[in-house]
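Throughout this review, each integer encodes one residue's backbone shape. One record appears below.

===
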Amino acid sequence: MMMDFGGMGGAGWLWMVFGLVFWVAVLGLIAWAAGQSGRGRHASEDAEDILRRRYVGGEIDDKEYESARRALRG
């Protein structure tokens, strides 16, 4: 006995697969776009900006900050 998916005849399974692929593609596109929006946020930062942010955030101490800053400036 063949199942009839909503009166679509024998190709009903094809429409179900197409619908599934469509929604997976839409969700994938949304996930990709969300991932791309975060890129480049700090792209304009130079090395001293990143160093300063790490110092303010407590990732490095005074000695490390000064040493790295001197190294960056040459």
Q: What stands out?
A: The CA atoms of residues 64 and 70 lie 10 Å apart.
